[in-house]
């Protein structure tokens, strides 16, 4: 969007002045009225753009007494996976070890 004061050009340079003999006797209003024909009077209307609404966090739940609800504490590793550990331990016990052969007596 280009904003500028009407008698001043958009590039900011000094406006061209008319010679005194040409505009002598004319009031400033009459000079402005003569220059008004050359002004751009285009108006563009645009509807406002609504930005997206912010994502708000949910409020913390409250008990009937007004105290905040305490979250359930997270279980430890053993509490979560004890059954899998027990199955692995039983499988190790059932497979047994390698059969032992006759042992050699150490010579003294």
Automatic annotation (TrEMBL):
It comes from Leucocoprinus birnbaumii. The lineage of its organism: Eukaryota, Fungi, Dikarya, Basidiomycota, Agaricomycotina. It comes from the Eukaryota. Residues 59-70 have a biased composition (Low complexity). Residues 1-23, 50-70 are annotated as: Disordered. This is ER membrane protein complex subunit 10.
């Amino acid at each position: 969007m280009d904003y500028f004061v009407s008698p001043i050009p958009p590039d900011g340079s000094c406006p061209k002045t008319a010679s005194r003999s040409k505009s002598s006797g004319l009031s400033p209003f009459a000079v402005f009225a003569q220059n008004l024909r050359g002004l751009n009077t285009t108006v563009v209307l645009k509807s406002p753009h609504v930005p997206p609404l912010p994502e708000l966090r949910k409020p913390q739940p409250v008990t009937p007494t007004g105290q905040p609800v305490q979250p359930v504490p997270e279980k430890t590793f053993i509490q979560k996976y004890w059954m899998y550990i027990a199955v692995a331990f039983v499988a190790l016990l059932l497979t047994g070890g390698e059969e032992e052969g006759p042992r050699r007596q150490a010579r003294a």
